[in-house]
Amino acid sequence: MSTKRRPLVMGNWKLNGSKAFTTELLTALKAELADNPACDVAVATPALYLAQATDLVAGSQIKTGAQNVDVHVSGAYTGETSIEQLKDCGATYVIIGHSERRQYHHESDAYIAEKFAVIKNAGLVPVLCIGETEEENANGQTFDVVSRQIDAVINAHGIAAFNGAVIAYEPVWAIGTGKTATPEQAQNVHQFIRNHLAKFDAAVAEQTILQYGGSVNDANAEALFGQPDIDGALVGGASLKAGAFAAIIKAAAKVKA
Hints:
By secondary structure, this protein is an alpha/beta fold.
């Protein structure tokens, strides 16, 4: 690699946690990471616990993030959370396009691209989730799906929008199922993603952090991080256990050193 990309390991807590859990987990995680491994680290808590989490990790290498954002900054949008509110609570990263949002909330590529711009305009880091279903994978449509999901952002905002952004490739068939792509399968898609970005701008492609997500755990992390285009991980269930999450972080720091 001509550019040294610092790995990013991010935990997505999804609909889990409480005030007590947040304190317990982040206190334990800070202790686990006391040796400050060379890896960017973040946790995306439920929005209710974002401010608490930000206070708890102050002074550590851990940053906080959100799992979603509305496209509106303020106004009569009952139940929504704006980018300014997330920023006010200390968020650095915002996950968008997760397959669960696409499936359960019917979020389109174009709508996700709107969210991407809102996050960038606020000076925060979008983590754009992309990935194919099991049926799409079986039909050989993986590259078509991920390029379409990326192109929605490029067509709306230009390739430069990916400067300082993160793309998380998460095959839908591997999320929460215990299944995971082999390191070689994951690398194949990550390489395609970077090459696809490079068609528009090689420099942007080279610096973009590409995470893998989909049943990442402390047992398979090191092999995944050994691939040249996998720069980190978006971690689900394993991020709810301080020891397992810390092991993934340390694996990234070790392999990418």
